[in-house]
UniProtKB/TrEMBL annotation:
Pfam families reported for this sequence: HHH_3
Chain segments annotated as transmembrane: none
Protein name, entry field: Competence protein ComEA
UniProt signal peptide: none
The organism's place on the tree of life at top rank: Bacteria
Lineage: Bacteria, Thermotogati, Thermotogota, Thermotogae, Thermotogales
Record-annotated Helix-hairpin-helix DNA-binding motif class domain positions: 56-75, 86-105, 128-147, 157-176
GO BP, one annotated term: DNA repair
GO molecular function: DNA binding
Amino acid sequence: MKFSTSEKRLMLLLFVGVLLLSGAIVELKTRSSEQAIVETRKTVEFPIDVNTASEKDLMALPGIGETKARLIVEYREKNGPFGSLADLERVPGIGKKTVEMLAPYVNLTVADVAAAQRKINVNTASLEELMSLPGIGEVKASEIIKMRQQTRFSSPEDLLKVPGIGPKTLEKIKDFITF
């Protein structure tokens, strides 16, 4: 089959048009995906409060990636607010040099630290108050209440008699309790 010169020109123009249209579509998709990435970025103001920051906010800190941010939040939720920047060294993977690098970019909320320093009387505390202690959930808090109905706690070691409370749990809560 032979094409006339005008048919060949028409096919060439059609082919060039399809190429240009394809290129324009690819360019639009690239720009829209780049724009979506830019729009999802959040501006973070420094200093960041390590006692209240989310994992995403912590990831804005130098040297803190997804894993370290998650570990900071997990440590804070398990052990209560950080009392000082040096307490960050207790988080796995964060050493003294990292804390020194972070110092200009982070701070601690005084109210959170003061709340952490407010001691809870295990002989009179409500279920909710007991549950605010690091490592104490509803079951352990209920066990403390059951045990104190039988005997008064007079020292941290008395809590070792409560089912579910061992030396590790006692170590976590002893600075936050009173009798």
